[in-house]
Specification:
Blueprint: E1 20-24, E2 30-34, H1 35-51, E3 59-63, H2 68-79, E4 83-86, H3 96-110, E5 114-117, H4 122-132, E6 138-139, H5 140-144, E7 159-164, E8 174-178, H6 179-193, E9 201-203, H7 210-223, E10 227-229, H8 232-237, H9 239-249, E11 253-256, H10 258-267, E12 283-286, H11 293-303, E13 313-318, E14 325-328, E15 337-338, E16 353-354, E17 358-359, E18 363-368, E19 381-387, E20 393-395, E21 405-407, E22 410-420, E23 423-429, E24 433-436, E25 439-442, H12 443-452, E26 460-467, E27 470-478, H13 484-496, E28 500-506, H14 521-529, E29 537-539
Parallel strand pairs: 1-10, 3-4, 3-5, 5-6, 9-10, 11-12, 12-13, 27-28
Antiparallel strand pairs: 1-2, 7-8, 8-20, 13-14, 14-17, 15-16, 18-19, 19-22, 21-22, 22-23, 24-25, 26-27, 28-29
Helix pairs in contact: 1-2, 3-4, 6-7, 10-11
Length: about 550
């Protein structure tokens, strides 16, 4: 029997008492919430929102960690006929001023009629709401106190999700995802990986990010499988706990960006894995950023002796404007690498580019030239997506700094890539590159080389562009270590020819990143060109 197309709230009618979500607690255990208990919480939340004046199509802001309250807030907003909007809590930012600027923009864009938050977010969100003239936020437990649940959900809103882009190429943009787009994306993903109720999942991803929200949580709930839920900081403290969760709970589904695999490789040794087994893992989706083939190989080398199947590593491609998933590898095919036909510098990282699979059902991917003409397979151009699950449009300023746009031609992603045998190979952002000797060199390709030479993820960012009239490559170090300047100089000198090379040396944690941890290249580049790093910028030399 195939995977059925399920409505976003169908699970409420058949909510299990046996299956549900397990939340990691501080005692190295798990707190269980059955789907029946979560369903009751959803209907109580919907009733409370309606009683507080939330109407059809109103936006409900959710500033919450992954929790039963977040599930109730998200699906409760839908059950009340409103549009949920998940906004990163303060824990996702290292500096308070960065958070206030980021969250302030998001609140101003979303204009929520009502906001639900956690205790540890309350004071900051209360301050932001007051400054913007919005209603005071309410802590989840207070919202549902002494409330009788609705008997059944109300009519779903036209817009089922207001989600924000990562902001890696500018500031985050609000994207309107229709009820139909969200449903078809979830169905497409479940059919892609054959996700059934008997296959448990596990995740440490934040629920304010599309990969953690749409890619994992919403799919788990709509599917009705057991889901094991960790906080991002649980994973950072102990990636071994995540691996133990796979082994002990027989988890079959998970997802993370490339840096999560790299972090496990840095923190976990083979001796730590004695007694663990990973045979149950069918699908580990890798997305949200460029995938490093060396990391995939090393991850399998670490876990393979304990039963992890290489084919379970499934690179994928997607984005907020496509609801989430666009392409993915079929189950069991196994990931591969290819190089473009024209010798483009996309393949400069020593190996070819990792394939991100083929379009999911109802979607089409084409590669176009600068003139908008479709290119043949093997040639590098811009990735354009058409078909189901494309966003209805942007909220707020549609012309903010970003290479991505929505229009009659579909979703022009601003990403560079090429096709080979129908499979998509993604290189990087078109705006994050320089043309050298007639070929494009991309910032993400150079970063991959730096990581392979020993500079860790999240400690370096490469910026490329024209500064003061000259082609320039800039390396931003977050807490530079001995030897890093020489590595960066060797890599950039080899691939950027006569471009000017500079180093920007900020403290560890000082590289401005999105709420999902990606460097905000265009924002940093703008600050560099404006002279904001004058006290920490220097020529990049070999010594």
């Amino acid at each position: 029997m195939g995977i059925p197309d399920r409505g976003l709230l169908d699970w409420l009618d058949e909510a299990s008492t046996e299956r549900g979500l397990y939340y990691a607690n501080r005692n190295d255990g798990w707190d269980f919430w059955s789907y029946q208990a979560l369903g009751e919480l959803v209907l109580k939340t919907a009733a409370a929102l309606r009683a507080d004046g939330v109407g059809q199509g109103d936006v409900v802001g959710l500033v919450q960690r992954s929790s039963p309250g977040f599930v109730a807030g998200f699906f409760g907003a839908l059950a009340a006929g409103a549009t949920p909007c998940s906004i990163a809590p303060p824990f996702a930012f290292q500096r308070a001023d960065d958070y206030e600027k980021h969250a302030g923009r998001l609140f101003e864009t979303a204009g929520p009629r009502f906001t639900i938050c956690d205790d540890d977010s309350l004071e900051r969100i209360r301050k932001l709401s007051a400054e913007l003239g919005l209603r005071e936020p309410v802590v989840f437990d207070e919202l549902i106190a002494d409330v009788e649940p609705l008997e059944h959900p109300l009519e779903l809103p036209e817009i089922a999700l207001l989600q924000f882009t990562s902001g890696s190429s500018g500031y985050s943009r609000g994207v309107r995802i229709s009820t139909d787009a969200l449903r078809t994306n979830l169905t497409g993903m479940r059919r892609w990986v054959d996700w059934k109720p008997e296959y448990p999942g596990i995740s440490w991803l934040p629920v304010h990010h599309d990969m953690g929200l749409v890619g994992y949580l919403l799919n788990a709930v709509v599917t009705g499988c057991d889901g094991w839920m960790m906080q991002p900081d649980d994973f950072i403290r102990s990636p071994l706990r995540y691996l133990r969760g796979i082994s002990e709970q027989g988890a079959a589904m998970s997802a993370m960006p490339n840096f999560g695999l790299a972090y496990i490789l840095r923190r976990v040794k083979p001796a730590d894995l004695e007694g663990l087994r990973f045979d149950s893992m069918r699908t580990l989706i890798i997305g949200a950023e460029r995938v490093d083939p060396r990391v995939l190989e090393e991850f399998h080398a670490l876990l393979g002796p304990y039963g992890f199947d290489r084919n379970a590593l499934m690179p994928a491609y997607g984005g907020a404007e496509a609801t989430l998933a666009v392409t993915g590898l079929p189950l069991g095919e196994g990931w591969s690498t290819e190089a473009p036909d024209d010798g483009d510098a996309a393949s400069l990282a020593g190996t070819a580019v990792v394939g991100c699979g083929r379009p999911l059902e109802g979607r089409t991917v084409t590669i176009v030239s600068e003139d908008g003409e479709e290119l043949p397979e093997g040639q590098v151009g811009e990735i354009v997506v058409t078909g189901v699950s494309i966003a209805s449009g942007y909220v707020g300023d549609p012309d903010s700094v970003s290479g991505t746009s929505l229009g009659e031609q579909g979703l022009t992603t601003g990403d560079a890539g090429f096709l080979r045998d129908g499979q998509l190979f993604v290189i990087g952002r078109l705006g994050d590159g320089l043309k050298v000797s007639g070929k494009m060199v991309f910032a993400e390709s150079l970063e991959t080389l730096l990581h392979q030479r020993g500079i860790p993820d999240r400690r370096v960012a490469v910026l490329l562009g024209v500064r003061d009239g000259a082609p320039t490559g800039a390396v931003v170090f977050g807490g530079v270590q001995p030897g890093w300047r020489q590595i960066a100089h060797e890599v950039l000198s080899e691939w950027l020819g006569d471009a000017a090379l500079v180093a920007v040396e900020v403290s560890r944690g000082g590289i401005e990143v999105t709420s999902s941890g990606k460097p905000r290249r265009r924002v940093i580049w703008k600050a560099l060109c404006a002279g904001e790093f004058s006290d920490v910028v220097r020529p990049l030399t070999a010594d």
